[in-house]
Design brief:
Radius of gyration: 15 Å
Number of domains: 1
Shape: elongated
Number of strands: 0
Largest sheet: none
Structural class: mainly alpha
Helix content: over 70%
Length: 119
């Protein structure tokens, strides 16, 4: 492959891996969330790691999978900002929300999209 990986793509991969690992270990943390929410988060963590591998290899499916994972994580995290009773939970929901919004911005940059279009 002759395409050079742009810096926003590299940053997006690192961010996606960190957020996906956080999602993956979330069922192991002691919380009072419904079981379905914890396991959805864990499943999204696994799929997010797969998406990160696809983005790292500049595969178009990796781009679309990372966008899908980001949107689904936003759907799960945004309500936590408003309904979470604990300050730490609100903080984690806010950090997750900001992280996935940043990830979407990074993969939608023009030079990132050109890199995916070239492969």
């Amino acid at each position: 492959m002759n395409t050079k990986r742009p810096v926003p793509v590299t940053v997006a991969v690192v961010l996606l891996v960190l957020l996906s690992v956080l999602n993956f270990i979330s069922p192991l943390l002691p919380t009072d969330y419904p079981t379905i929410v914890l396991f959805l988060g864990g499943a999204l963590g696994v799929v997010g790691l797969l998406a990160a591998a696809g983005v790292w290899m500049l595969r178009r499916w990796g781009l679309w999978l990372s966008i899908t994972v980001s949107v689904l994580n936003l759907v799960l995290a945004v309500p936590g900002i408003f309904v979470e009773p604990h300050a730490m939970g609100k903080l984690l929901a806010g950090v997750t929300t900001v992280g996935f919004v940043l990830l979407l911005v990074l993969v939608m940059q023009p030079n990132s999209r050109r890199a995916f279009a070239a492969t």
